[in-house]
Amino acid sequence: MSDVTTEAPVATIATLGKHEGQRVTLHAWLYNLRASGKLLFPIFRDGTGTIQGIVPKAAVPETVFESIKHLTQESSVIVTGSVRADARAPGGYELDVENVEVLQRVPEETPFPISLKEHGTDFLMEHRHLWIRTPRQSAILRIRAEIIKAARDYFDDNGFTLTDPPILTPAACEGTSTLFPVEYFGDEAYLTQSGQLYIESTALALGKVYSFGPTFRAEKSKTRRHLTEFWMVEPEMAFADLDDLMVLAENFISFIVARILERRAADLKVIERDITRLETIKAPFPKISYDEAVAMLHEAHAKGLIENKFEYGDDFGSPDETYLSSQFDRPVMVHRYPANVKAFYMEPDPVDPRFALCVDVLAPEGYGEIIGGSQRISSYELLKQRLEEHHLPLEAFGWYLDLRKYGSVPHAGFGMGIERAVAWICGLDHVRETIPFARTLNRIYP
Ligand code: 4AD
Ligand code: MG
Fold first, then answer.
1. DSSP state of 228
2. Distances from the Cα of 345 to the Cαs of 338, 392, 400, 417, in angstroms?
3. Cα-flanking dihedrals φ and ψ of residue 221, to 5°?
4. Can you tell me the distance from the alpha carbon of 281 to that of 257, in angstroms, rounded to the nearest whole number?
5. How far apart are CA 247 and CA 235, in angstroms?
6. CA–CA gap between residue 274 and residue 270 (Å, rounded)
7. Residue 250, Cα to own-chain centre: how many angstroms?
8. Chain centroid offset of residue 170 CA
């Protein structure tokens, strides 16, 4: 829709800088309205940002002034006006409004439920379909989209081929306790927990591959880091070992953070992110072994810095990861966990086979694990033995074992949960704000 009669081209708020001094048309909603005598200050939002309009009574026809004066929050409008630079305005510009065409005025009797005052989390999650219109939530969603684009660009530009794994799968990848069963024409199938097993096969076909898609875990835990449906980006490389994988992970994360700083500065400002905490995120990252991480936890416990006495041999819990990751100004890579706390497919360390050639990347500021990955078992015999030890049905994994029968090679890959990455980069308290519609233990509405 364009306003041809007044020759004011349709513009977006984010790009108003290109139209300084010109007349434009905006497709927008009313975010807020202040009135001061003969002056109105409507704030419009259009999905790319917000801008304040100025409407002096004397400058517009009476009908226009009256219709703006009675606008309600989230009424939909087509606005025309001229763009004026104003150093005091948050986006650098203001709009001298000439006309407002109201598409739908929200009635007073049924006002937009999310006002500018504070609301509780349950209320906001119940109204998530409307909550996402608020400037902070919109900014987070734009940053999420940019993180996804950056991840794709990184792999596309570094020789990786995108291969999409199935979502309906016959077997478990990441343990049997978090499977979502689906009735599949009389058989039991599961929603995928990770594309890994499939992209191992596409890696042996194409060399360097990645997948990016939704993954599912029936997590019974109610934490600020767990969703039941989340998006994972997973690279997999043939002829690669754990060291190659760690270099890939640090370059990948550094690239994404630099991209967000470069392209989403305005959104980082809207959400009041302390960007000095992102500017330090440059490869190489610190790399410590599981044993070294445990030593740090034991020392912290002895000094009374953490309550929990960590049991050597366990996997790290959220509080342990929070402590470890808060000790560094960039992500820390913890490698070589005890094999028995990790997945069945991990290659044992030849130096000491009780440990696995795996790595978890813990984000700084206490965010904990954002990446989990490993070198994969390349021996047919050992993989078969591991499947048996984990009581996994061999018949469902015949195809996966084939990869070790026909030209087996060392190979490695990782998975990064997009929502965990968004939570960290945006500095959010909870992953529920990182995805348009979060799925958690106790919420599947809206
Ligand atoms: O560490 P995870 O379980 O590793 C895998 O699934 C491997 N198969 C990946 C691979 O090697 N290709 O999960 C990888 C990442 C975690 O580091 C975390 O960022 C995210 O996925 N993740 C979750 N994010 C939100 N909610 C959950 N319930 C998550 N579980 C894992
Ligand atoms: Mg993990």
1. S
2. 13, 12, 10, 19
3. -90, 140
4. 7
5. 13
6. 11
7. 17
8. 27
- β 332-335/287-289 pair status: parallel
pLDDT tens per residue across span 51-73: 999 999 999 999 999 999 999 99
CA distance 441 to 219: 7
Ligand 1 center to 127 CA (angstroms): 28
Q: What is the DSSP letter of 346?
A: B
Residue 275 CB-density burial (10 A; 0-12 exposed, 13-18 middle, 19+ buried): middle
In angstroms, the CA 428 to CA 272 distance is 11
Cα 64 from chain centre:
42
Ion ligand 2 neighbours (CB, 5 A) are 372
Residue 308 confidence class, pLDDT cut points 50, 70, 90: confident
Q: Is 371 in the pocket of ligand 1 (CB under 6 A)?
A: yes
The H or E element containing residue 146 is helix 135-156
Where residue 148 falls among pLDDT bands split at 50, 70, 90?
very high
Atom of ligand 1 nearest to the CA of 173: 8
- Give tens-digit pLDDT for 364-390: 999 999 999 999 999 999 999 999 999
Concatenated DSSP letters for 160-202? PEE-PPPSEESS-SS-GGG--EEEETTEEEEE-S-SHHHHHHH
